[in-house]
């Protein structure tokens, strides 16, 4: 894909991985819409990404609601006329042994991480058909490795990997590419982390952005459908 002038929509782009991907896509000449639950946060992050309103847009959308995601796609089409790349990135993680995991935390993870990627795809699939575009989900290594305290999070990310792979089979006849990226530890605000010097061993959000660019630039005949990515060296303290 020639990236210049192409339009990307990144759910949950106000901070963390989504924000890092937005920075990199803008550097490559793309136009980028980011979303978050609060309009003031989405607009603030959009204006710190770029002072040029022709190339960036902040949208309020809660991915747990299909109507919000439909509205987000309409707003993007009104502004730019097409949407070529979707990053279904918004996600939350709550970690506790299953007997202690609170019901509302389970529901929030299922509604955001799993129902959210479904809502984003349902809202954008006709536009992606028009654009012969690319739909990418941010799953996790927790979508293939299970661990204690992660029953809820594992359930969502295993679900995202299965959803994305099956959707890939459904959509490739339309020349829509579909991939899932499965990162290990990334320096972001995930799970109440504040990125700091002790996070330098982790993948940085812009590294995921560079990976997205590699995927977008891959020859049209070739599709890496599932990408595991991890820190080269694990945390020395562990
Ligand atoms: N960090 C890691 O180590 C890691 C590893 C593997 C996978 N991941 C996955 O990567 C994705 C991004 O996480 P991150 O690490 O960047 O976390 P983060 O720094 O906490 O950012 C999460 C983003 O999701 C948005 N968000 C949360 N709930 C939302 C909702 N209901 N609707 C719309 N946006 C929502 C937040 O925006 P607002 O707060 O502004 O709404 C924020 O922009 C997640 O799917 C996560 O599971 C993270």
Give an overview in words.
The chain is built from 6 helices and 7 strands. By secondary structure, the chain is of the alpha/beta class. It has one domain: NAD(P)-binding Rossmann-like Domain (Rossmann fold), CATH 3.40.50. The chain has a 7-stranded parallel β-sheet, with helices on both faces. Residues 11-18, 35-38, 41, 62-64, 89-93, 112-113, 138, 140, 183, 185-186, 188-190 line the site of NADP nicotinamide-adenine-dinucleotide phosphate. InterPro entries: NAD(P)-bd_dom_sf (IPR036291), Sc_DH/Rdtase_CS (IPR020904), SDR (IPR050259), SDR_fam (IPR002347). This is SDR family oxidoreductase. Belongs to the short-chain dehydrogenases/reductases (SDR) family. It comes from Galbibacter pacificus.
Question: What structural keywords apply?
Answer:
single chain, about 240 residues, seven-stranded parallel β-sheet, 6 helices, globular, binds NADP nicotinamide-adenine-dinucleotide phosphate, SDR family oxidoreductase, NAD(P)-bd_dom_sf, Sc_DH/Rdtase_CS
Topology, element by element:
Blueprint: E1 7-10, H1 16-27, E2 31-36, H2 39-49, E3 56-60, H3 66-80, E4 85-88, H4 103-131, E5 134-138, H5 151-171, E6 177-183, H6 205-217, E7 226-229
Parallel strand pairs: 1-2, 1-4, 2-3, 4-5, 5-6, 6-7
Helix pairs in contact: 1-6, 3-4, 4-5
The structure holds NADP nicotinamide-adenine-dinucleotide phosphate.
NADP nicotinamide-adenine-dinucleotide phosphate binds next to helix 1, strand 2 and helix 4.
Can you list the strand order of the major beta sheet? 3-2-1-4-5-6-7
- Figure out the total of helices: 6
Net shape: globular
Distance between the termini: 40 Å
Q: What is the average per-residue confidence, as pLDDT, rounded to a whole number?
A: 97
Q: How can the largest sheet be summarized?
A: 7 strands, parallel
The portion of residues assigned to helices is: 40-55%
Low-confidence stretches: none
List the bound ligands. NADP nicotinamide-adenine-dinucleotide phosphate
CATH class: Alpha Beta
* CATH overall fold name: Rossmann fold
Name given to the CATH architecture: 3-Layer(aba) Sandwich
Given helix and strand content, the structural type is alpha/beta
Following the backbone from N to C, one meets helices and strands in this order, namely EHEHEHEHEHEHE
Family: Belongs to the short-chain dehydrogenases/reductases (SDR) family.
Organism: Galbibacter pacificus
Pfam families: adh_short (PF00106)
Protein name: SDR family oxidoreductase
């Amino acid at each position: 894909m020639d990236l210049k002038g192409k339009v990307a929509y990144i759910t949950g782009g106000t901070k963390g991985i989504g924000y890092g991907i937005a920075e990199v896509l803008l550097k490559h000449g793309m136009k980028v819409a980011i979303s978050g639950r609060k309009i003031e946060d989405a607009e603030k992050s959009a204006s710190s990404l770029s002072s040029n309103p022709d190339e960036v847009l902040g949208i309020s959308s809660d991915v747990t609601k299909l109507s919000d995601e439909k509205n987000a796609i309409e707003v993007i089409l009104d502004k730019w006329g097409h949407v070529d790349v979707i990053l279904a990135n918004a996600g939350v993680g709550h970690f506790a042994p299953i007997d202690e995991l609170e019901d509302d935390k389970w529901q929030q993870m299922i509604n955001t991480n799993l129902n959210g990627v479904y809502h984003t795809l349902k809202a954008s699939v006709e536009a992606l058909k028009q654009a012969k575009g690319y739909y990418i989900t941010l799953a996790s290594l927790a979508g293939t490795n299970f661990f204690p305290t992660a029953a809820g999070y594992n359930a969502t990310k295993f679900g995202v990997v299965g959803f994305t792979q099956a959707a890939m089979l459904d959509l490739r006849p339309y020349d829509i590419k579909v991939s899932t990226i499965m990162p290990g530890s990334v320096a972001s605000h995930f799970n109440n982390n504040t990125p700091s010097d002790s996070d330098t061993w982790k993948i940085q959000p812009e590294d995921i952005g560079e990976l997205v660019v590699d995927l977008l630039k891959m020859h049209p005949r070739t599709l890496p459908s599932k990408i595991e990515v991890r820190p080269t060296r694990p945390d020395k303290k562990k």
